[in-house]
Amino acid sequence: MTFILSALLGIAAPIRPPPPALVFDGATVIDVDSGRAQPGLTVVIEGDRIAEVARRPALRIPAGARVVDAKGKFLIPGLWDMHVHTAFGDWFPGARDIALPLFVANGVTGVRDMGGDLDVLLGWRKEIGQGSLVGPRMVLSGPMLDGPKPRFPSSVAIATPDDGRRAVRDLAARGVDFIKLQSLIPRDAVFAIAEEAKKVAIPFAGHVPDAVRASEMSAAGQKSFEHLIGIFEGCSPREDEFLKGEKSPGRFLQSFDEGRAGALAALLARNNTWQCPTLVWEQGGNLIEERDLDHDPLAKYAPASWRNGAWKRFRDQLTGEFNVDGLPTRKRFLAKELEVVAALHRAGVPFLAGTDTVAGVHVFPGFSLHDELGLLVRAGFTPLEALRSATVSPAVYLSMSDRLGRVEKGKLADLVLLEANPLDDIANTRKIRAVVANGRYFSREDLDALLRGVEARCARSDAQRIDQRLERGRLVTAARVVEEEAVERRAPVLQHPHQFAARDEARDMLLQRERQADAVPRGADRELDVAEDEGPGNGHRHRLAALLELPSVYGSAGAHAVSDAAVRREVPGRLRPGM
């Protein structure tokens, strides 16, 4: 299949000079097909390809090669995360320089982007191929196809079959690698999309749309199902009812039918319909109340714009709208999901490892893939089978097994060197000694530098966000002070000299407070987000209170009676801790 070639091989000439040959000397190479660990092999990499894999006496080491002592280390193919979102409207600003290096730092050398801003992603892919940007290989869907009123950014609204056909043709012409389906597409439009995708020879994958059965989408040729959507519906005699929208984990558990489950598994295996269950996001979303997100040690790798923006909105939606069942029911459902994954796997349904990063709340790029592999093992996969879901299985899925997924001569040089054997414990995929991404070598020191760089960028982003909000609060306050002075003195606004003095005094005071702050604690920063939604008569008071950590009198019943002059008079007093 050729649709994926430009994504993986690149079409632009490298702007980085070719590196010297790289040699891993004495490595134990993991054969992901047989599961054998082959000790004492030397792997030679020239350019972006594996040139040789052999034992030392029979091997010629190229002159000037960089030789890495790999004795006692374990070499595996580069990992793939087969469900990510990176350039996703305005939800995750800065993802280019945060998510992409985090993937590489965690041994993820390839991703399938399941919905994003196509022009941005194509630009990133070109830079990565040229060597001017650190990041994984990228397979792209571009914007997702959704119903008449899409719920997410980077989406195309589909109301009719003609809308669906047109969207497929347009996206294929723009160079996407596959079509991504979301949940709300009308039933007749879904089948029009499937038909058009076959005409233009482009795969389609994603959600099983709400109005269609999983069995129907498998028969229509959908290449992969995400998040187990459609599976529990299809395992129930109430499937027709669920198609109308009345579904929840509790209802799925109450009506689960083992006979239907077995029949559906056999159908999916027969049709080779891949599953990408994103268990790490299923666990995270359903157990959101039990997660201490404020003290997550990985939070330093996500800027406040993510934590307090898209993630907060999504978290609030989960707790207020989606999680209709109690926590005990959701825990039983998660256990059942693992059972279903195991049953599908035993039936021969193929699986891909994916995470739904960055869209999933606190599902961190790169790190979360290792969590996903651990969850697959919890579901009953062997460590080898879990490893395959992120290496050779993506290569097969992408019809690129001649180029990817194994440590063999002639394959693309995407590799991860581990300190311990992942076949003994899948958690050993976290113990990364080095990474090769498209022939580019990253030592442990290089990977640590990538992590430090991301952490610094996130901290800078947080500081800039605080600065922007301080500036906004300062301007609002200065304007209010000037307006009040004009009213008090019955003078035209911005003409009386006392107004300029009052404005300057307010500016000087707020600048002084800004210098203190690393200025606004996290709790106060969240209050600023809330204040954005308030009206002009009261929101600026909340913003100023949050900025200066004033007593929260402005949230009381008498808030509207508090004057801006009162706010100004409170300023010189001792600031209180965060509210």
Summarize the structure.
The chain is of the alpha/beta class and 579 residues long. Helix content is 44%, strand content 14%. The chain is built from 21 helices and 17 strands.
**In CATH, what is the class of the domain at 1-77 and 391-442?**
Mainly Beta
Basic shape = globular
How many helices does DSSP assign? 21
- Cα distance, first to last residue? 59 Å
Number of strands: 17
Largest sheet, described in full? 8 strands, mixed
Range of helix content: 40-55%
CATH homologous superfamily (4th level) name of the domain at 1-77 and 391-442: Urease, subunit C, domain 1
Supply Rg: 27 Å
Unreliably modeled segments: 9-14, 485-503, 513-579
> What is the residue-mean pLDDT, rounded to a whole number?
84
Query: What class would the helix/strand composition place it in?
Result: alpha/beta
For this structure, the CATH topology of the domain at 1-77 and 391-442 is Urease, subunit C, domain 1
Could you characterize the architecture of this molecule?
The chain has 579 residues and is α/β, with parallel strands linked by helices. Among the domains are: 1-77 and 391-442, Urease, subunit C, domain 1, CATH 2.30.40.10; 455-570, no CATH class. The chain is 44% helix and 14% strand. It has helices at 5-9, 95-105, 118-130, 161-174, 187-199, 214-220, 231-234, 239-243, 249-255, 258-270, 279-286, 304-322, 327-346, 367-378, 383-388, 392-397, 444-489, 497-516, 522-531, 539-548, 564-570, and strands at 22-30, 37-46, 49-54, 66-69, 74-77, 79-84, 108-113, 137-140, 144-146, 155-157, 179-181, 204-206, 224-226, 274-276, 415-418, 432-437, 440-442. The strands form five sheets. Strands 1, 2, 3, 4, 5, 15, 16 and 17 form an eight-stranded mixed sheet that branches. A hairpin with a 2-residue loop joins strand 16 and strand 17. Helix 9 crosses helix 13 and helix 17 runs antiparallel to helix 18 (497-516).
